[in-house]
Amino acid sequence: MDSKWIKFLGITLIVILAGLFVFSSLQKDEPPGAVEPPTTRPSAAPLPPETVDIFSGLIFKNDEGLFQVNNSGTAEKIAECSADVLNTDGKSMFYHQDGDIWQLDLETCEAENITNTLASWEVNPQVWAEQTDILFYGVDPEMSAGAPALFNLSNDLQVFLDGPEGWTNSGVAPSPDGNQIALHSNSGPAIYDLNKNQLAVIDLSSFDLNEKDFGRIEAPSWSPDGNKLAWVVGYQGQIGHLILDFESQNAEILHLYIPVGRGGWPRPAIWSPDGNWLIADVWADGFNQEGLYILASDGSKEYFAGSQYGIVVWSPDSQLIIYSSSGDSQETHYFSVSDGSSTLLPLPSDGRPVAWLSP
Fold first, then answer.
1. How far does CA 138 lie from the centroid of its chain?
2. Residue 13: enclosing H or E segment and its boundaries?
3. Which of 155, 219, 231, 326 has minimal Cβ neighbours within 10 Å of its Cβ?
């Protein structure tokens, strides 16, 4: 049996056992009463035929290939093949298979193993829009998603952002200016400076925060203007989304909740292109409280969009999100932040959103 698979089977057993201790990473103090913003739950309605042109630029995939909606609302096939992560140049896609990262050429549909290692295991490829030659992934995932690493596609150079002993549950957050990478490090929340090749831990006290109030601080995501970082944090026995504003040095925690016990960690928040909203992955311990939330970045409002979902993408104008169901229905919906409505989107039954580009 391949050495990677032997290692993988052992890792899987460790991860299952580790899931029993998920709360050990959270502070056990009695949480303060949280003021909850108004939450709106969606209504469902059929898709009006005359509105299909609003999805211009949407890219989705299915077993037949890759498609993009044109200005007239028609889905045009742009490739005979597809994978998981669309490269920023639109010419290839990335995926992990058998412990390596592969790049799929969308013109020829030929795949190349770009890591091709025997002694390590690479997973979860992630692109950087501002640095098209750089790819991120995790190396040797054990009880996490692996040690965060940067891979230069132009010279095949791999750099560990927090050393080979680092680990993350949720990937990294490359900045919009193309110079910085936020990540969970062994020393706490940190930012890697690409120009200096240095990792600096964020001082929470500069935001008037007490580090002792926090357990895990992971899953970062930059606001589109690069002034704010959102983190999924354990805070006094709860989980919430910590927003650090580097301009004002202010901090705010959105949507605190009691988490359900399971291994892993919620996914990073996804900022809207205008920076006014965040899509939050909520693992709440309560009936109909777990799922997809859309939070106003100033904490003034929030929506509940659904309990079972997979891939989520924002529209370029920040007015809609499209999300696919992870349940048995395999449906895709679009959600409006203007009125909190959810509507079925008639993609093919096996269609899944990939990206939404400006037309």
1. 14
2. helix 3-18
3. 155
Q: What is the pLDDT of residues 169-187, one digit of tens each?
A: 778 999 999 999 999 998 9
Lowest mean pLDDT among 119-128, 153-162, 340-349: 340-349
* Amino acid occupying residue 139: V
Contacts of 110 (CB under 8 A, 6+ apart): 104
Locate 217 and state its tokens: 């601080």
Cα gap 300→305, rounded to integer Å: 17
Look up residue 84 and give its two tokens: 């998981």
243 contacts 194 by C-beta, under 8 angstroms: no
CA distance 67 to 220: 30
Per the listing, tokens 């964020």 go with 202
Question: pLDDT for 246-278, tens place per residue?
Answer: 999 999 999 999 988 777 789 999 999 999 999
Q: Cβ(59)–Cβ(355) under 8 Å? A: yes
**The residue count for the chain:** 359
180 and 197 Cβ atoms separated by less than 8 Å: no
Query: 171: helix, coil or strand?
Result: coil
Q: Which amino acid is at 79?
A: A
- Give the torsion sign (CA, 169, 291, 354, 4): positive
Mean pLDDT of 42-67: 71
Rounded to whole angstroms, the Cα distance separating 244 from 189 reads: 11
Give the three-class secondary structure for 1.
coil
Comparing CA positions, the residue from 212, 214, 215, 246 lying closest to residue 230 is 246
Scanning the structure block, which residue is given the tokens 């409280």? Answer: 289
Residues 118 and 107: beta-carbon distance below 8 Å: no
Question: What angle (nearest 5°) sits at the alpha carbon of residue 315, between those of residues 311 and 218?
Answer: 50
Q: What is the pLDDT of residues 100-129, one digit of tens each?
A: 999 999 999 999 999 999 989 999 999 999
Cβ atoms of residues 167 and 161 within 8 Å: no
Q: From CA 38, how far away is CA 273, in angstroms rounded?
A: 23
What is the pTM (predicted TM-score) of this model? Answer: 0.84
